[in-house]
Task: inverse folding
């Protein structure tokens, strides 16, 4: 099985989300999320190639942001070029309003 979410340490700690992410793929993202927890700096989440996601991904990202915040780091959601469904999902679950979460890129609700 190919990974849908990958983590790369360098040059900037980044979680790259691709394809479809839902509850059925939740176990496949665990390794990348655990690696992101060990980052020495803020973690960027690249959402450009994510086609579909459900709330299970948003809950995992919320938990990641909470744990990163405990270490003095933030979760940077890179929404530039993200599918509108993904941006809507982030808004609906309120991920963008959590402490320790920042938005990078155009955000329709802020325009």
Result:
């Amino acid at each position: 099985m190919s990974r849908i979410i990958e983590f790369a340490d360098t040059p900037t700690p980044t979680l790259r989300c691709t394809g479809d992410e839902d509850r059925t793929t939740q176990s496949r993202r665990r390794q990348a999320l655990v690696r992101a927890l060990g980052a020495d700096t803020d973690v960027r989440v690249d959402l450009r190639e994510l086609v579909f996601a459900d709330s299970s991904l948003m809950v995992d990202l919320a938990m990641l942001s909470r744990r990163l915040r405990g270490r003095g780091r933030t979760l940077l959601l890179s929404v530039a070029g993200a599918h509108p469904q993904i941006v809507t999902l982030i808004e609906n679950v309120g991920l963008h309003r959590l402490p320790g979460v920042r938005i990078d890129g155009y955000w329709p609700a802020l325009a």
